Fold each of these.
Amino acid sequence: MLELKSPFKNNKFYVKMKLMNKHNTKPQQDKTCFFFTYYKWVLWLSLSLYFFTSYLITNDPQNPTTSTIVSNSNSNVVSHNTIGVLKNLKVFIYELPSKYNNDWLSNGRCKTHLFASEVAIHTALLKSDVRTFDPYEADFFFVPVYVSCNFSTVNGFPAIGHARALISSAVELISTEYPFWNRSRGSDHVFVASHDFGACFHTLEDNAIGEGIPEILKNSIVLQTFGVEYKHPCQDVENVVIPPYVSPEKVWRTLEKAPVDGRRDIWAFFRGKMEVHPKNVSGRFYSKRVRTEIWRKFNGDRRFYLQRHRYPGYQMEIARSVFCLCPLGWAPWSPRLVESVALGCVPVIIADGIRLPFSSAVNWPEISLTVAEKDVGKLDKILKRVAATNLTLIQKNLWDPKTRRALLFNNEIQEGDATWQVLVSLSEKLGRSYRRSMVSSELESDT
């Protein structure tokens, strides 16, 4: 308890009161004492109210802005209590044998390539305050299996043919050693499928649809980069659409050299796979011929900077561009979506029906353009019209740091970043939590 001391004890006013007492002037004494007592109680009451209301504000569980945060020049890392809906969320992370995750990290690309969100999410959750070591208080159970780290020796691309067997083995292990999978049939268990067609675990759509989602996962939650607005067999599971992985460190290094509001001398940019003849060696039409049409139509147009080969300074080109073309590849999504937003280039999305990540945090219609695949030949006219009308407003919305933050994964969760958005999405699915459903049942039985 704070002891309140009289502010008068060692000053002239207090001395004067003592001297007057010597003359036995009782009326004056009573008046002075009354004033002193009154003032003391007013001061005490004021200070009590101040400390009491301060306590209520900083400890209000309903206050979404309450947090304990350690800040530095580069981040806003949540080190103690998370904010709002995340404050009471609890996630248990299975400690699986290293063959399911850590062994794959011997290849450095595992943590940096476009499918690496499976590693980034796991890494961030391990250090997060939402993590619980008591599975009986968990709302969700995270199963850390890295399926995108097996790189082909032929072409160097991720090979995921082993994914189904690896996940099946992990589920068999946790369902044997723990009771939590069986009690909910996996409905509160979370997996990551951060590659072309998500939970179907195949890079080609026909094969992905043919093989479908493994039965063992159909009752779980899958965090996947694949998402479309229409019915598709590969999203016929409870899912959260997440962004592909782009290194935040690489983004920051690029922004140090070329800030988002700096000079942009490239009007429309694309660098990537563009086949001159749309049907490639697999016999399939890559990008549904969209990229081929872009190359044929605009390769000779000086306003379009189109390149078909890899280049180490790729991100600097994005940072110099006004519009960045983001056409579909084999799947609708592309890392260009994240790179364009992060580096302040207006993404031009050419992928019919794509479902974009974290729409509650990223206002996609206000920061990007969407062009139908059939209209790709009109790109020049569409971009010219936007440049003459509302480009300034789009760029203003796009350059908001909160938008960039929402699409980047960090090693430690930062307020508003991509892993944070994953947790927000999970908090909206608490009806799948076995623990929460049991608590609700107990409360109903008590009433």
Amino acid sequence: MSYAAFDSTASVEDEINEKILSISEDRLQGFIADPFKEIARLTGLPLSLVLERIRAMFSAGTIRRIRLTLLANDLAPGALVAWKVPENILHEAFDFLFQKDPFSGHVVIRSTDPSAAGARYRLWSTLKVPQGFSLETHCEILKSFIGAEGYKIMPAKGIFTLGVGHIRRKTILPGTKSDTVATMHPISLKKLNDKQWKVLGALKKELTIDEIDEGLWDKRARAIGMESKEFFSVAKELEKLGVLGRFSTFLEHVKPLYDGKKVTKFNALFHWAVPKGMEIAAGSQIGRFEILTHCYWREAGSEFKDVNIMAVAHGKDKDLLESHKKAIDHHLELTGIPVSYTNIFWGGRSEIKPSEIFPEAYKEWLQKMGLDLNTI
């Protein structure tokens, strides 16, 4: 569709849209009975206008998906995986993970100084494997399919920051941080009953254009043959279990939008190696910095000089992102947290999709790929 097909009501630079997105990207935590009404309340805008603008941005591709996110690490074993793939098949491997593996989520080709630790690990992906199956086995399967020479599995031990708010963050100055330290969410696999899985399936589905309206969850409840009262009750159970993330309008922040503009240009994966026993202290300080969309405790091992804290930041200016990183490094020094090694992996080609977490989906995938479930 041509750029002329949409006007400024679909632009991220429109003042009203900025106001909506500053809330709708990452400010709606947990289960909210009517999320669009809540966006209207928090922005002070009429509900009709909020719906109109979100529909316009969704239709134009400015918003690439709308969904209630899950803290999927608590529902399925998950990890960040760095892949060592020969350069001549790097993009072919990327395509496989994005197009043919429903359990790989964010797939990125990254680069760093060739002399840096782990520089040959160019392909990075997030991975979730449904309960009852193995991350290691799945990586072995993928290794064979994509021709990887090796891989490093880095499960999250704790989450300090998780919330992608690109519009809200674009004016943040280096060094801007919260007044209090970030609280770590420890990873703990939760067991759900059949009814909870059923409601979870209805909650996590991406919205269609027709669902951008009032009464979203009432309609989803009816679709699975459940009364709204019971559906809402189970949703609150899931919230108390800590497995629900945020209701979010995800911007297309990698590719050019309908008007040729981009929300962000650079994606930086920051690495720090801190002494054993200081991971929570370091992550709690790093997680305070508002530029970060993600901050995790992950053990990267000797290939990456024992990096154990990782964080992600996005922006339009590479030098500015490096200034944000320097401000975090300076803060760690002031707080007495020693760093033995630090580095930045810069993102290039990137695709994002939600990882599948349902066991039945894994069985179906194995069958589709011609693999025997009994040998997995």
Amino acid sequence: MAAWARAVRGLLLDISGVLYDSGGEGGGVPIPGSAEAVRRIKASGLKLRFCTNEAQATREKFVKKLQGLGFDISVDEVTAPAPAACRLLKERGLRPHLLVHDDLVPEFADIDKTNPNCVVIGDAAENFSYANLNEAFRVLIGLEKPVLISLGKGRYYKETDGLKLDVGAYMKALEYACDVQAEVVGKPAKAFFESALAEMGVPPEQAIMIGDDIVSDVGGAQQCGMRGVQVRTGKYRPSDENHPQVKPDAYVNNLAEAVDTILSQM
């Protein structure tokens, strides 16, 4: 009996690496069985949130891409860092200097960006040039109380041409240079998972996070009191199973296998 799959009311699913393998600009290939697994979850009556650190496109554009790949998903089912960052900026009266992907900029359309008093960093891809990083550094170092907000903390992610550095590496560079601690609004921040749970109306002990990132997905969920399951797709590597700090509640070969096990316990 799979004890990890019992007494579940809600599922949180990472997207890239769990639903599909990213194919870079405009691409992507669904992982076999994942679209059907999503349909089965919804038909079962379980609550569902799609949790992503996607920061190279607006949620609308990202969801449209997933719908084109055959997934039953809507914008209001997605928990993502950019909207959370915008709420934080407005609440605290912060005016950001943006170091983000060009396609994400529309998410910040109604945010005052004049005379910046903080820096927001996301997965900027090719925008992570020396000149752009140095500009962000100059904004931070020039502030009496520097504020650095990061749309994630990932070390790397996977595309069809291999692994690529994620925002966490560049975030750490600015932290070191400016002697500042970044505020992370994406995974693995506890507030990110708490927001997704609140949107589902499910307590952490009755929820499972399924992801391919052992630290951001599994570790972040477990720190919030949820169960964390790692799929052997996406960025998963065999060495993850010997991680010194994070021990998933279970490993599964893919999302379809996880859903099979969970639904069999209902």
